[in-house]
Write a structure and sequence with these properties.
The complex is a heterodimer. By secondary structure, chain A is an all-beta fold. Chain A has strands at residues 3-5, 9-13, 18-25, 32-37, 44-49, 53-57, 60-65, 70-75, 84-91, 97-99, 103-108. The chains are: A mainly beta, B mainly beta.
Chain lengths: 109, 115
Amino acid sequence: GQNIDQPTEMTATEGAIVQINCTYQTSGFNGLFWYQQHAGEAPTFLSYNVLDGLEEKGRFSSFLSRSKGYSYLLLKELQMKDSASYLCASMDSNYQLIWGAGTKLIIKP
Amino acid sequence: GAVVSQHPSWVICKSGTSVKIECRSLDFQATTMFWYRQFPKQSLMLMATSNEGSKATYEQGVEKDKFLINHASLTLSTLTVTSAHPEDSSFYICSASETEYGELFFGEGSRLTVL
């Protein structure tokens, strides 16, 4: 079956660094997406990885290991506005997105 | 980034009525549009994939006769919830992509409440 696993909730301190992990098992693989979703709002695109390695985009970086079925989202210099849910999604061989349940990130001052 | 507009943001309707939600790509032509539903404290669930000029592809368990999807142009897709019931109350979100498997841009979402 197809499955995406990510932690339900994480807590971090303002100014610190946090890493949100995601493991996936999908029928085929056409890329791994990370989205940010604030409560009551639609998700916004953060990153897309299809090749192994780390992609850096400002304070956010995303890593992919295809052989391990593993990705992480790294958030640096955390700000209070980063409090949100972070959704991991894998695109399968049919180009359908398989979504994780999301990780709720709580930032404390 | 590209902009996707969804309308209405909020809608309250009586049980048995039909509700139409529009999804527009404002500054690009969307080959593919996706419709999702999100129940409280749950993740997004893909309902259907809509390609311009062809019939939508529905996910398993989604009633195509109840959730009518029309993608008549490269900038507009509509979702009509027919004969809505309280259990259809949910947050409906659309997304669009310029290319078939490219970056997705999401609408603001439409919160439907059926009384």
